[in-house]
Design brief:
There is one protein chain. This protein is α+β, with helices and mostly antiparallel strands. It has two domains: 187 residues, Alpha-Beta Plaits (2-Layer Sandwich); 217 residues, paralog of FGE (formylglycine-generating enzyme) (Alpha-Beta Complex). It is built from eleven helices and 18 strands. Strands 1, 2, 3, 4, 5, 6, 7 and 8 form an eight-stranded mixed beta sheet that branches. Strand 7 and strand 8 form a beta hairpin. Helix 1 crosses helix 2. It is globular, with a radius of gyration of 28 Å. The N and C termini lie far apart (59 Å).
Length: 507
């Protein structure tokens, strides 16, 4: 990235100019377009227009939303600084995941993909530039990164490893140009670009199978019409009427296993049409629900500024999922093509790696199929239910007890992945995993405090809706996250490996 190499530092162009240039510790993002020269050679004007549109519509708004400052664009890249390493990494991930969607319909050799490097370092700030070793290291990390991915330094990793709960792959120590000490580098997971490639291959395979099926059907119908016109006329004159869903007495029916495994069920060319229920009409396992009685409680705590002020809330009766939504339940939605991906893992494990938008899709699917008002719980409903009628630090008391929840320091059942739902004791309301296991999305937009929060238990849907509220903490968090009052937020459309949810049901 030619223009970035002109940054001044003690290792490159001599010491900074004398004067009162401000220094600060900052998280620096450096982004650069992979294969930019090739793209420009193929379509100079079109590539320039597309890059400027991405900068205007995606990169600049993402930086602002994550409380950063765009220092400069460099033709084929950008530089931004952030006060918060957490926000810097989140910004990088949001940019990469949005680019996956933008590139999905384009040929591979026409896609604009960024490499992103993030570092934490002391920098010198000018009105329109930044320089110093911190910037140089971010630049070198970006140069190592694969297209579509975010690489971070060890300095960033140490700041975010317990705050941005996602996967990381250590790439070891790397020697980078003009920097004396090796730099430890991590790749941020999940790999949004790999997800896009996998999904694209799956969709292409389904399209191919569907195409083959349609060709076979078309050929069979043509053969039928050309060779048996007399029978066709007789059938037109005296059609056979059978009850919907009943087999024709002259037609052998395919076995249920064959119907279920076909990606696009269709009648054989010389048979009566087989009545196959659509995925949405197939038997559905509704989540097991627990009726929650209404009542009042003191919401929040003084343990953290985001949990203040403690305020009185009244909850109306409703029902809440006994467990977080499971892989099996989610995959029924995916099979009906109402949810965006098919999950892997054991059927009785909680679904993970879902965004708030994904959770909303599942709730909408459930409501449509069952004709019941399924939804996400409000933040107040979730905390009321998690407390189970108590006001202690945890629902079981004020001190941590082993094996009561699935978290990093909660006891023997803590592991590298969430335990199956129901592995720990239920709270007094009969709800499982209301603390630990998986982070759980709720309906509310994010607010940094409870100042102005509704007191009727409804969702707070104004404010920063680019982020939504997460509750519960996960198996990767420590025990302070499993407190019923603990709250966090994350970007609305971003998936992370610890994020799951449960559903609520209005009366």
């Amino acid at each position: 990235m030619g223009e970035i190499r002109n940054f001044r530092s003690g290792n490159q162009d001599g010491p900074p100019p004398n004067g009162s240039m401000p220094r600060r510790l900052a998280a620096i993002i450096v982004g650069d377009i992979a294969s930019y020269s090739r793209l420009m050679e193929a379509d100079e004007e079109g590539t320039h227009v597309r890059v400027k549109r991405i900068e205007r519509d995606l990169i600049q708004p993402s930086i602002v939303e994550h409380h950063g400052s765009l220092v400069k664009t460099t033709g084929d890249g950008f530089i931004a600084i952030f006060d918060s390493p957490v926000e810097a990494v989140r910004c990088g991930i949001v940019i990469q995941q949005n680019l996956v969607g933008r590139n999905a319909s384009l040929p591979k050799d026409s896609r604009i993909q960024y490499r992103i490097g993030v570092n934490l370092g002391d920098v010198i700030i000018e009105p329109d530039d930044v320089y110093g070793d911190g910037v140089n290291i971010a630049t070198r990390i970006e140069g190592i990164a694969e297209p579509g991915q975010v690489y971070i330094s060890g300095a960033i990793y140490e700041q975010i490893k317990h705050k941005v709960v996602c996967g990381y792959e250590s790439l070891g120590d790397r020697k980078v140009k003009n920097i004396t000490d090796p730099v430890r580098i991590y790749r941020v997971l999940p790999d949004a670009d790999a997800v896009g490639r996998t999904r694209g291959r799956r969709e292409n395979a389904l399209i191919f199978l569907l195409g083959v099926t349609l060709l076979v059907i078309a050929a069979g119908v043509l053969w039928y019409l050309l060779t048996q016109p007399g029978r066709l006329n007789k059938q037109a004159a005296a059609p056979i009427v059978a009850p919907v869903g009943s087999p024709s007495p002259q037609t052998p029916q395919p076995s249920p296993s064959l119907v279920a495994s076909s990606p696009s069920p269709a009648p054989a060319p010389s048979q009566e049409p087989v009545q196959v229920p659509s995925p949405a009409a197939a038997p559905l396992r509704e989540p097991e629900m627990i009726a929650i009685r209404g009542g009042g409680f003191a919401m929040g705590s003084n343990d953290d500024s985001t949990e203040r002020p403690v305020h009185q809330v009244t909850i109306k009766p409703f029902s809440l999922g006994k467990y977080p939504v499971t892989v099996q339940e989610w995959n029924e939605c995916a099979a009906a093509k109402a949810c965006g991906f098919t999950a892997t893992g054991k059927d009785d494990a909680p679904i993970t790696n879902v965004s708030w938008t994904d959770a909303q899709q599942y709730a909408a699917f459930l409501a449509q199929v069952t004709k019941k008002p399924y939804r996400l719980p409000s933040e107040a409903e979730w905390e009321y239910s998690a407390r189970g009628g108590t006001q202690t630090k945890y629902w079981w008391g004020d001190k941590l007890q082993p094996s009561m929840a699935g978290c990093k320091d909660c006891g023997d059942l803590a592991a590298e992945q969430p335990a199956k739902v129901g592995s720990f004791k239920p709270n007094p309301f009969g709800l499982y995993d209301m603390g630990g296991s998986v982070d759980q999305w709720v309906e509310d937009c994010w607010h940094r405090t409870y100042q102005g929060a509704p007191g009727d238990g409804s969702a707070w849907n104004s404010g920063d809706c680019a982020s939504h509220v997460l509750r519960s903490g996960s198996w990767k968090n420590d025990s302070r996250y499993v407190r019923p009052s603990n709250r966090d937020s994350y970007d609305t459309n971003v998936r992370y490996p610890t994020h799951g949810f449960r559903v609520a049901l209005s009366p």
